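Narrative of accomplishments. A recurring question from our advisory board has been how the design workflow behaves on a single, concrete structure rather than in aggregate. To address it, we present the structure tokens for one chain from the evaluation set, followed by the sequence designed for it. No filtering or post-editing was applied between the two.
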């Protein structure tokens, strides 16, 4: 386009001996230039609309990812733009309550647990097991009373909550629900015991290692990119203390929501002030499972299962506090 204008200007400047060419050609080129500009504008508008449509599709077909968390609010049934979302930024503070969390193991063994690799990471559930699930009560006030039963455990790469602006390598969530939640009845509530995960232990964490071996088995069962590799572990049917890292600890406590769509605001958060320590090797194995597991899609293609961001994160950015109260419930005994 610029070259066309330059040619027209040159014809005018050097007054080429073509009758009427000076005015006619300039007018013609100017008209063509304006037409091209309009076509270009239409092309950009079409491209922008196409991109918007693609992103809108990603936001409404439940295929969310961590590169575009701002689109979660557009998903069907989403509460991701409401006022009590999670995670939040936490800060060091004095204790507001003194009480011990009542953590009960029940009678489940690790054999009662189902381990899986999902598009959002690694997960532990109880499937059809009828064992007495681990459960706890929040020792605060009548608003939060009621036993919450262990529903699942999962891990996000890069912490979701921050403490004094600091992140950790990962964050573990032990999701608990009340009986109303399980029954789909009014009054359904969830409670999460959350903790940062730090890979700076010089030795393996024994409880986490038992989880890790189960997740390795789960990956081997579905991964289409293992090239025939097999992975076996010794049978493990012993009881396990799922609360080992939570006993005798202090917790930040606040009212919030799920950190993945639909971000339902039914969660009493209880965030451990101390991190879970694992070894660098354990963190590398876990990260490899979450980011590099491949499964067959409907077309028979072997693709990565993860919805992690380009940087490998499966964590949502912190959300506004919007006037909510944060308590710090401190243990009465260690």
């Amino acid at each position: 386009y610029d070259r066309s204008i330059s040619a027209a200007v040159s014809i005018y400047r050097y007054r080429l001996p073509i009758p009427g060419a000076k005015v006619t050609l300039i007018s013609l080129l100017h008209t063509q230039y304006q037409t091209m500009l309009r076509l270009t504008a239409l092309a950009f508008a079409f491209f922008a609309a196409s991109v918007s449509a693609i992103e809108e599709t990603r936001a409404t077909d439940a295929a969310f990812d961590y590169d575009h968390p701002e689109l979660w609010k557009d998903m069907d049934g989403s509460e991701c733009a409401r006022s009590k979302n999670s995670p939040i930024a936490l800060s060091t503070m004095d204790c507001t309550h003194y009480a011990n969390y009542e953590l009960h193991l029940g009678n489940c063994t690790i054999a009662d647990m189902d381990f899986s690799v999902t598009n959002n990471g690694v997960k532990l559930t109880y499937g059809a097991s009828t064992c007495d699930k681990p459960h706890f009560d929040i020792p605060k006030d009548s608003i939060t009373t009621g036993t919450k039963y262990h529903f699942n455990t999962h891990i996000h790469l890069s912490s979701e909550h921050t403490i004094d602006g600091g992140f950790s390598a990962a964050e573990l969530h032990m999701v608990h629900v009340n009986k109303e939640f399980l029954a789909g009845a009014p009054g359904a509530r969830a409670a999460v015991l959350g903790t940062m995960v730090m890979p700076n232990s010089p030795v393996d964490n024994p409880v986490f290692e038992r989880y890790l071996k189960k997740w390795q088995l789960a990956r081997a069962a579905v991964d289409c990119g293992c090239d025939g590799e097999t992975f076996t572990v010794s049978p493990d049917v012993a009881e396990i203390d799922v609360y080992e890292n939570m006993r005798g600890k202090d917790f930040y406590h606040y009212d919030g929501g799920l950190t993945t769509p639909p971000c339902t605001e039914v969660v009493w958060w209880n965030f451990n002030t101390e991190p879970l320590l694992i070894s660098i090797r354990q963190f590398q194995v876990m990260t490899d499972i979450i980011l590099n597991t491949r499964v067959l899609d409907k077309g028979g293609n072997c693709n990565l299962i993860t919805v992690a961001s380009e940087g490998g994160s499966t964590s949502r950015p912190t959300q506004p506090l919007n006037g909510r109260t944060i308590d710090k419930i401190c243990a009465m005994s260690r």
